Amino acid sequence: MFTCDYKKLILSFNEFHNIEPGEMPQYGEFCMIELKDGRYTGGEWNPSDYDNKKSVAGGFVRGTGDSVSSGEVARWHSLGRYNASNCLEQEDMDLINFGVPGENVYSVRFDGFKSFDDGDFPKSEQYCLLILKNGRLSSGRWERYNENDGAFIYAPALASHSMNKVWAWTPLSPDSTFEAEEEYENERKREEELNQNPSTDSGMFRYGTDIDVYYEKALEKLLEKYPWATVTQMKKTTPWEIVPHHGKYVFGKTSEGYRGETLVEEWEGGMTAEEFIDFLCEYTKEVVENSDPGKKFKFGTDVEVYLEKAYKNVRKEYHWINKKMIKSRVRYDIRKIDGDLEFVRAFNGSGEYHVLEYGSAEEFIECIERDYQEVALSENPVTATYDVPFGRVEIHGWYLERYRFVKMQSGDYKVEVQAGDRVTGGNRTFFITPECFEADTYEAFLDRYLQIVPGESFGLSKKELLQNRELKKFLGYRS
Questions:
Q1: pTM of the prediction?
Q2: How large is the average pLDDT for residues 354-358?
Q3: What is the number of structural domains in the chain?
Q4: In three state form, how does the secondary structure of the chain look?
Q5: pLDDT digit string (tens) for 33-59?
Q6: Sign of CA dihedral 194, 195, 196, 201
Q7: Is residue 193 part of a domain?
Q8: The domain containing residue 125 runs over which residues?
Q9: Residues 6 or more apart in contact with residue 300 via CB below 8 angstroms
């Protein structure tokens, strides 16, 4: 490891180049940059025209969406060509010159280096000059991951120097990104100070600052029309809280921002407690209506009744399904959660149940049916497949990638459709119901089939499928 004292170290950069033809860096060369306003930063040179050596157009890239155009730059000095290892291994070293100093040679010095070993960290979004542990120089913008970890971003796609590769660092000039982060941090601190002793509006909070009191008063009104209503039901819709905001207590809904901060959506519908209570009644009315136990538990509170109804419904078309297939794959129950009975489901391999927000027995049964159908298709072995040929097919901004008909061991068929764009993709599987095959002709079959997999939604219409003789034969229709 290097033995000189980074706290006393000064780096001097000499012999800067101007922004003019014949003086520009090589493509991809990482540089120290002096801007026309006197600030210093860094970046990787990316010319607009690689072949035109007389052009100075381009930018110095500092990260994804972060660059400095050549028009903002006064001078540049290469960072990538140096390795200072020999100098840094000398205990008495306190000044390192990069480039020959002298009269009429433009020079700039940087000092005040810090080390992570001392527990010093840059401020968020601060752009810094770096001495790496391999002796080379670089720069980058500090991105904090947590209180004790982060990295210096220096190029697109989050290319970075991790903190364990940096020997010492010192801040370069502030820029708009850093200043915006500083303003955010200052605002956060001001908000934190204001909220230490929030004021309370006596008209708005005449019943105090316990939100449950307001829910209970709203519940009293709801019970007149919905005798089954509970506060638990009311809070299924994103609950309101009483929180400090801008130095005063407010009724608000909170969420977490991308920085981990608490965001507050303040209620602005009135000026009194009574107005908020009336608002709560209206805000929660729909979820309370959908919690009517008479509709929700129409067939009682024994979950086996619902499971059996779903099984019988699915077996009408998925005739090969049996209860052994579903026993270990799908788990439902009816349990008391926070005082109210709820439909719940445990996902595969998990002992944790999650509440299903269904307001009727029919919706719950339909949910079970969808799972049973999925299990049935996965448990029916494939015996043959046919990929429908197609050209360029666009589906609402996505492009068709695969359209596959599958014959299963039971003699039934399903179809798998896959589509994607440059970033993402997805696939769907559809069971071709026996009712489709009751059609006497291939054309009549397609009329029924396209009700399940419509051409406008999944890429291929009746015209393309009707003329496909191989598909016709694969599905069991004579040529």
A1: 0.67
A2: 90
A3: 4
A4: CCCCCCCCCEEEEECCEECCCCCCCCCCCEEEEEECCCCEEEEEEEECCCCCCCCCCEEEEEECCEEEEHHHEEEEEECCCCECHHHHCCCCCCEEEECCCCCCCCEEEECCCECHHHCCCCCCCCEEEEEECCCEEEEEEEEEEECCEEEEEEECCCEEEEHHHEEEEEECCCCHHHHHHHHHHHHHHHHHHHCCCCECCCCCCCCCCCHHHHHHHHHHHHCCCCCCCCHHHHCCCCCCEEEEECCEEEEEEEEECCCCCEEEEECCCCCCHHHHHHHHHHHHHHHHHCCCHHHHCCCCCCHHHHHHHHHHHHHCCCCCCCHHHHHCCCEEEEEEECCEEEEEEECCCCCCEEEECCCCHHHHHHHHHHHHHHHHHHCCCEEEEEECCCCCCEECCEEEEEEEEEEECCCCEEEEEEEECCCCEEEEEEEECHHHHCCCCHHHHHHHHHHHCCHHHHCCCHHHHHCCHHHHHHCCCCC
A5: 999 999 999 999 999 988 887 889 999
A6: positive
A7: no
A8: 10-177
A9: none
In a domain, 68, yes or no: yes
The pLDDT mean for the chain works out to 93
One domain, residues 50 and 149: yes
Whether the per-residue pLDDT at 157 is higher than 90: the answer is no
* Tens-place pLDDT, residues 231-240: 999 999 999 9
Do 285 and 302 lie in one domain? The reply is no
Q: Are strands 159-162 and 149-155 parallel, antiparallel or unpaired?
A: antiparallel
**pLDDT of 349:** 64
Looking at the structure, do residues 409 and 444 belong to the same domain, yes or no? yes
Final residue of a structural domain among 265, 291, 317: 291
- Averaged over 303-311, what is the pLDDT? 96
Weakest mean pLDDT among 56-65, 88-97, 343-352:
343-352
Q: Which residue, of 233, 259, 291, is where some domain finishes?
A: 291
Residue 33 falls inside a structural domain: yes
Grade residue 397 by pLDDT with cuts at 50, 70 and 90. Answer: confident
- Whether 390 is covered by a domain: the verdict is yes
pLDDT at res. 287: 93
Q: Is 358 exposed, middle or buried (0-12, 13-18, 19+ CB in 10 A)?
A: middle
